[in-house]
């Protein structure tokens, strides 16, 4: 199970770094402008202005804050010919001002919102960073809505997202490591974790995997998530993608590692176990009996969703004996005019449901709703009347689809829906035996998975009793250990062990209570 | 690596191709819900009630009757008659005709028990007359004879009006050394089907029968029950003892009781004598209005009369079973279980049983009596 | 090839998991019809035979672990090589390898037979065998931890099954257990001997032992696992004895399945069909761990990768399955296996314990000299 990760962690040979050719900054004004235009292919939004005879500024329109440009940069220039980059740097009163003597580097910075200030005769450029990009305002998360709890979601800006997280966790131990990924896109990626809570092993793994990536572009965090998964060939997601900062912070606080990608409104949380995909942040906000009930309902829904249609197919194709007498007549009568065997009927209907779902997701919201109604009612009724499907199967399939949507995570919900198809096929060929084959296969597959090397089926296997109160049920908060054993740091575990030991010692020798070690929450 | 994957795909494809199994799609088979066996000139006649599912008639019942040397032979013949494959997995009841029952049904039961398709929870019953005539009769009020007979037997067994006769219990008793079994008896009476009595078996052959009204007593002797209604006729003198006696003197006083809890206790006295004591907690359902049942004395009197009555009935029934030498109450097993090194054998018990002295003692207690006095 | 095992930290398991391993390995196909075999000898005292057989099993396990404790990081195969030297040791290893693969074959064939008889009379045994072997191969390639995980989930997924076995008690007659102790002790012991086929499986500790993290807790959890199996077997035995009449039980081939047959729920009938299919997850740990046990032995003699091994092993097993066809052949094989199993599991550990003791004292004397 761990072979793969070890391989990944092992120091591999140096891979070729991103090493562009170095071009020195030309000291002369016109040379500089020509060079600049040549490198970035003189786009339409490149603005070049001459402030004085000596000073030229260049920036990309829209990437910088014009107000700041006027107040903090243009107003500071003095018409003296003995201006040098270093004196200018000191005069400009914005936080990030640098002096570079290399063109490519300058342009990289310009592309993320810097103003280039060139002084004729100096082979250096002063860079003043005043970035501003249009961004979405903070809105309620759409895909992971919840009734009770914060209603704020990530947006596409890395900085805003980190600010949001800092607002939830005001803690000097919150670490933020920065990476740049993608040869062409050069996307900023932040790895966040709380020092002292997180298991360093996981941070190292993430760091190593990100460093080892050799990709051309990175548009969304979902791609990154797939790339750093333990087994990207598996249908099951092994890292959580969330658009909720509270869920993200919850992950960090339980000792997980978070990754945020610039330009993506989804944060990645890893390692994540299979069970946690079916838990919602909201469960923590509700009272425990209600939260437990809802969780159990969700797990029942998975079973219904995966196994109901196959059981129907298997029972009607092979195991007519198991149908109780009262159900026999309605079942057989509803099937009487259907010309296909149950397996075809079920596959057809499942496909219809999937089509409806996909169409609803692609169409604009208003049309999407209509499609749902039209599809559900018109196709459903028509199919039964035309004798293509039995009405009992429609109920079962609809129930299965409905149940799959109770999964709080969209990625996992998709998985639950898709794995039904092979099981239906197996059930249609070999009845309950086929279903059982599929179940065993699924179980072994899940057992084989891991997330950053942590077992995927934790806390059930390996059994970690300490985490059970917050698994398929949620017991009252005092029963729940805040840091799941799965992702707890060594230090933390040793601490708690020590605590136990000191308690024992105290009982034995009646020592005065030493300063209690407080667990960092 | 690629080769391996192709190899895997090849193996899986082969598997799927070689492993087509017999489809039994629900609406494409005929479900046998009831089979009746008769004997005719040494051959077996099987009459089966078959549920057919057709798009035109929705679902219909067909009755097929065929004669062959073995019961499977009849099935093959019936299959030849039917448009769809016959499957016995939904079989609920098996009936045996009178003649067959007298000849012995052990072999038929063995065949049933051998078949993994058939569950051991099906009911067995004996038909008064031929099962073929029973099943082929016209019943305007009954849509599905198979289901009707099943429901008839099932609810009576559940309400403890009739002895339970699942295949499992019959097989258990047939092979047990000191126990005989009894089956319910059904009868066609005009446009209806009745449970008419209990058929007593000895070594798999029917040797006698008791009327249906005796089934409560049989149950009472066999096991502890908690349901079942009994109608009794007590002597009329009881009415005299009431506070305001009625103007006329009824000759007899019918009452009805409902068992709430009974406890049967057997005690071996010696090799040829056994004590049977039954405590019966019951609820009074019906009684003449003049009797003040809240009066303790009267209640006690009624209880005593009930005891007497039940005792005499039970003695009569036991006597009958001794006459036909069919130990349906499991006394023999009790003897075997509670005597060490008894060396009891089946033959020996057959000799002992007709002369076994059973001392019956009933202890009735009326616990409740409705909401209106 | 190698004498001591080198097991990486990540492959070690916690001692409590032994409970599930022992339990999952013991419960397999034997449970379907063991009542009949024991009843033939011990009659209504068959449940006493069950208890006696387990007392003996506890004792044997105790001896086994004592033997293993002398060689803390070695399994039975290694002990053989250490005690008897390479040549004779390998001979014993061969026997044990043969035993493990034989057990694998017996479990597989019996399960296929049950499916053929109860559910799919026409489904080819080749397919059933191949599909089960596919699953075994898939699990086997996941490594030891995955196998233990299967044991664990096999236990969890079937926890509900014993509870519905109480439903048939509606039909049970307690008096069928009486008279108590009416049979000769000899017969009861014979019955206990007939338990062999059902009870074996716990000998997997011979191979698992070096993989356990906390060696001092091994005894506790292995005995606990055995005890849990005892409770299950005993309750099934008692229910069967009261539910069936004696001669009926003697004629019932799969009494446990017949028990299921009478259970009816409002939404489902014929529970035995479901439980037979569910049994796949019960026999899966059996198959996986027996295959694994064979593998551990084979790699001591031949240098073979685990992937290659499992494919070859499965192919051989599949071929053997094709040769066993009729019920009488299966019964014959079960019979041979249970005698062979008795020797390997119940007698042989005593011998190896003695040998190990002698060797150790010999070495000690040598050292003091």
Automatic annotation (TrEMBL), chain A:
- Keywords for this entry? Membrane, Transmembrane, Transmembrane helix
Segments spanning the bilayer are 296-316, 368-386, 423-447
Per the record, which residues fall in region Disordered?
Answer: 1-23, 486-521
How is this protein annotated for GO cellular component? plasma membrane
- InterPro entries from the UniProt entry: Spore_Ger, UPF0353/GerABKA_families
Query: According to its record, how does it sit in the membrane?
Result: Multi-pass membrane protein
Any one GO biological process: spore germination
Q: What's the protein here called?
A: Spore germination protein
Give the originating organism. Lysinibacillus halotolerans
From TrEMBL, chain B:
Recorded hits in Gene3D superfamilies, A to Z, give: Nutrient germinant receptor protein C, domain 3
Q: Where in or outside the cell is it found?
A: Membrane
Query: Which part of the chain is the Spore germination GerAC-like C-terminal domain?
Result: 196-370
Q: Which Pfam family would be a valid example here?
A: Spore_GerAC
Boundaries of every Spore germination protein N-terminal domain copy: 23-187
Q: What is its main location?
A: membrane
Q: What keywords are assigned to this protein?
A: Germination, Lipoprotein, Membrane, Palmitate, Signal
What is this protein's record name? Ger(X)C family spore germination protein
The family line of this record is: Belongs to the GerABKC lipoprotein family.
What InterPro entries does the database record attribute to this sequence? Answer: GerAC_N (IPR057336), Spore_GerAC-like (IPR008844), Spore_GerAC-like_C (IPR046953), Spore_GerAC_C_sf (IPR038501)
Cellular component, GO annotation: membrane
Q: Which GO terms describe its biological process?
A: spore germination
The keyword Translocase appears for this protein: no
Q: Which domain of life is it from?
A: Bacteria
Q: What membrane topology was assigned to this protein in its record?
A: Lipid-anchor
Q: Write down the species.
A: Lysinibacillus halotolerans
UniProtKB/TrEMBL annotation, chain C:
Recorded hits in Pfam families, A to Z, give:
Spore_permease
Leader sequence range is none
- Is Transmembrane helix given among the entry's keywords? yes
Q: Which Gene Ontology CC terms are recorded?
A: membrane
Keyword check for tRNA-binding, yes or no: no
Q: How does it sit in the membrane?
A: Multi-pass membrane protein
UniProt entry keywords in alphabetical sequence: Germination, Membrane, Transmembrane, Transmembrane helix, Transport
Instruction: Look up the domain of life of the source.
Output: Bacteria
Which coarse location class applies to the principal site listed for this UniProt protein?
A: membrane
Q: Which GO terms describe its biological process?
A: spore germination
Under the heading Gene3D superfamilies, the entry gives: Amino acid/polyamine transporter I
Where does this one sit in the cell? Membrane
Q: Membrane-crossing residues?
A: 12-34, 46-65, 91-112, 118-140, 147-168, 188-209, 221-244, 273-292, 304-324, 336-358
Q: Which family does it belong to?
A: Belongs to the amino acid-polyamine-organocation (APC) superfamily. Spore germination protein (SGP) (TC 2.A.3.9) family.
The record's NCBIfam families line, in alphabetical order, gives:
2A0309 (TIGR00912)
- For this entry, the protein name equals Spore gernimation protein
- Give the originating organism: Lysinibacillus halotolerans
